[in-house]
Fold this protein.
Amino acid sequence: MNGAEALLRSLVDAGVDTCFSNPGTSEMHFVAALDRVAGMRVVPALAEGVATGAADGYGRMTRRPAATLLHCGPGLANGLANLHNARRARSPIVNLIGDLSHSHRPADPPLVMDTEALARTVSGWTKTVLDVQAVAHDGVAAAAAALAAGRGIASLVLPSDVCWSEGAQVAAPREVAARTPVDAAAVERAWGALSGPASALLLGGDALTGDALLLAGAIARRTGARLLTESSIARIERGRGRPAVQRIPYAPSAAVSFMAGMKRLVLAGAKRPVFSFAGPDGRSRPEADGVDVSTLAHGDEDVVDALERLASSLDCDRWTADEVQGGRAQPASGAIDPDSLARSLAALLPPDSIVVDESVSFGRSLFPQTQHAAAHDWLQLTGGAIGMGMPLATGAAVACPGRRVINLEADGSALYTLQALWTQARERLNVTTVILSNRRYAILFDEMKRVGAKTSTAAESLLTLDRPDLDWVELASGFGVEATRACSMEDFNAVFQRSIEADGPRLIELVI
């Protein structure tokens, strides 16, 4: 058995059964082994950023790693931005990165670079396979590392000779260690902080889903503490029947106002809030000086157990959903604006849908106004590297084939990875992409004002997407995705409803 086949069989046995792939010459023996090994679904991508972003979406929804298959250091470099986002989301991923054979590297062929060093910038675990006897063992070690405490990215560099050489053996899966429980002192500190006035519980990671979220809701109801989450959310379960969690606004001025008056902040699986960018005033954080910040559980600790113990110490009742007053919300009509889109989404989101939000500036009101929509998951950009929306939606749809994925996508961000539409069409994925087409990087105009930079003719030219205007209907059609343009809310409501009732991908260009 050659190294590629042994690696593939070992990964499947370890539970890695999906691979988002953009291979090249150095990966051909791995590609050939797919015909001899059952159990691995391979999803092709036209660009490495699509493969890495899709693996992120898959990992967020399943909490299991998908693999990526990337072509040498330059292929990894092309996928790096969405691996950065995945690292911030704590998504489990196993990167398989082809490389030149050991004997060929010293000749300095064109693709030689320090691939392992590049991989370390986004990976919690990185290794280059040294020989064919090690390849399967290194593969299962990578899978275990991706599932270790806090989850993360494991990158395995595969010189082509370890894949084509014979004599490899399949390796058994490794056990993944349980998460570390928090100490009693952390629970006691959180109890004291949340029992006082003007307190908030800030949730992140695993605290935003499943039993942990319901426990947090019960704690907030018992103590009167505000229930918050970070500005950038990897995944949250929300909608009717679930605890309402307020998101800290992205814009610094709004975030400062949002957190004014707070005296105590307890972190549960979340990091202390920080602005994406500092302004000329030099301020980095939204909370006022003197706020007492304590940690119940770090992201790599057992936050579910910590919340259970905290709820027990506070003698909390089990979470029960509040009654939602009034009938079903009605879709908006008339001109398109952020509030109208939010109202229509709140009315029309199908139950158990998955929302991937890269709506950027136009979409800032969408999250708060969809809290009482049908129950759904909400995924966001986590690392600030735009171009994750379409790939993330692709991976989420592969992970959850019975659920409709709604991708709310700014047109500027979409241009980074629009090749994901082809993968959606090829795999017949149930994704509805809503392109918010304002033909400009609107967030950068906002940022110019915030930092005191003056708008100029050159700035206008750099930050607009016109001359020529982009035609998203034609672009989507070229990738095999049925597309429609909507110029009013009535148009949008009708087209959106048809899209969620159909099979396969659809795109709506919403002209704003």
